[in-house]
Specification:
five-stranded parallel beta sheet; 20 helices; 13 strands; 36% helix
């Protein structure tokens, strides 16, 4: 245990963000870092609780108290060794995880100042790369081959784990570069893509083969992959966005959020788009429909592109501020979240639904009619029911982003994306151990659960890698 009384004398200190005036001029990461001395002091605040709820809340089962103690004592290498036993990519989770662990920290309950677990995690892995603690590992090969379809956080985790166990792993990715959601769904100001490249290059050096621009079911036959490999893991994510079927949906200027975010990330990687293809918020009134993280990412991107105004609307009520009695500690609190992007400039409104999009003579969206809704409790105590109030208004909007989540049931996802038809089977189910109803075929991540957190996708990847290894080494167990 580190310093059992540190939390009484050392307050929580976050690294914070670059100033708004500075950061909205570029797409570099907004979060700053603490020096190593202050970072060790923050680690000393961990009390090594008798029941570590941070560990309980983490989908990966990270052993936070153990590596916090090593960090406090300046033993960075040991801290990294403990951390990477449970988390394959701390450089990702240390930047973009919402830190479920911190909300379950005992110090969050007692003094509302949890340990800076996420930032400490990022600091440990960055020090490990800088100091050379992260080394290329060349495992002894076992002669078996595994294909992973999809290179998002779940697929990368499966590939990394199985490669270290000696399997020859090939990752198929339909996009031009690996990373999936990490590369084309998350803005650079939250996760710089050089961080992804660094990890991908390490995995390549360790023997993982990446085949990009290979859309399984299109350029590559799924049946051939299944035939040629000892196991196949489907990790294609959940990429079917929820649409809104109202009048004017076809107007120019109405886009799905990931169209916008993915294009901006590609532009930053040097890809050219024609003026007709380019989606830009410069000088425009922007409306973001959907109040989640992806909507927030659209806000941050639009601010950097020079939007005239940005409004974000949500159909649900505004969450409580600071504390929600419906989600008490140690649960994840359903409270109002204000992101760095919101701080940069955005009008946020709740209890609003979209009735229709209105266009100009050129067929482009110019206004959006919205209507206030109310949510009424049901007699059986179930989910409240929504009803329209009749209170309508029209917003100016030259650019609209739909950010209302994703719909992607596993059976439809796999069939539509892969056209997997082996031995006449078309309907693929997934059991609790990630094994599908098709022999040798496994599935994990958002393709199974629907859209969720990166850390949960990684946890699913860990579980699936274990299931694949078990099936190939001890098939009767």
């Amino acid at each position: 245990m580190g310093n059992p009384k540190a939390f009484m004398t050392i307050p929580r200190q976050e690294a914070g963000y670059r100033t708004i005036h500075d950061r909205i001029k570029d797409f570099s990461e907004v979060e700053q870092t603490l020096n190593s001395s202050d970072r060790r002091l923050q680690a000393s605040r961990c009390m090594d609780c008798g029941v570590p709820f941070c560990h309980w809340a983490c989908p990966l089962g990270n052993r936070q108290p153990e590596w916090q103690e090593y960090l406090y004592k300046g033993r960075w290498k040991e801290a990294c060794n403990v951390l990477i036993q449970t988390c394959d990519f701390p450089e990702f989770t240390g930047r973009i995880c919402p830190a479920l662990c911190e909300k379950s920290c005992v110090l969050n309950l007692s003094i509302h100042e949890p340990v800076t677990i996420r930032e400490n995690e990022a600091a440990i892995i960055e020090a490990a790369f800088h100091e050379g603690y992260v080394q290329v590992k060349q495992p002894l090969r076992n002669g078996k081959r595994v294909a992973v379809i999809g290179s998002g956080p779940a697929g990368l985790t499966v590939a990394n784990r199985l490669n270290h166990l000696g399997y020859a792993v090939t990752v198929y990715e339909k996009d031009e570069q690996p990373g999936g959601l990490l590369r084309y769904g998350i803005p650079n100001f939250k996760l710089g893509k050089q961080i992804i490249d660094r990890r991908i290059n390490l995995m390549k050096d360790e023997g993982v083969e990446f085949k990009t621009g290979q859309h399984v079911g299109v350029e590559v036959k799924a049946a051939d992959i299944v035939r040629d490999c000892d196991a196949v893991c489907i990790a294609i994510g959940s990429e079917i966005p929820r649409n809104i079927n109202v009048e004017g949906r076809q107007l120019k200027g109405v886009h799905f959020a990931l169209e916008y975010l993915g294009q901006q990330n590609r532009i930053l990687e040097g890809r050219d788009f024609t003026s007709a293809e380019r989606i830009t918020a410069k000088g425009k009134n922007v409306l973001v429909i959907g109040g989640g993280d992806t909507g927030s990412d659209c806000v941050g991107t639009a601010n950097r592109q020079g939007a005239k105004s940005i409004t974000q609307i949500e159909i649900l009520p505004q969450p409580p501020v600071n504390f929600n009695p419906a989600t008490p500690w140690p649960q994840w609190p359903q409270i109002l979240k204000t992101s760095s992007s919101h701080e940069e400039g955005c009008l946020r409104r709740w209890n609003l639904t979209t009735n229709c999009f209105l266009g100009d003579a050129a067929g482009a969206v110019s206004r959006v009619e919205i209507e206030e809704v109310e949510w009424k409790p049901t007699s059986d105590g179930g989910r409240p029911e929504m009803s329209l109030t009749g209170k309508k208004e029209t917003l100016d909007a030259d650019l609209v982003f739909l950010s209302m989540g994703f719909v992607n049931p596993v059976q439809e996802s796999i069939i539509a994306e892969l056209s997997l038809k082996v031995d006449g089977r078309k309907n693929i189910a997934v059991d609790s151990d990630s094994l599908t109803s098709m022999q040798k075929v496994f599935a994990c991540g958002d393709a199974v659960t629907g859209a969720s957190l990166v850390v949960r996708a990684m946890a699913s990847g860990v579980k699936t890698a274990t299931a694949i290894d078990k099936s190939l080494t001890n098939p009767r167990l």
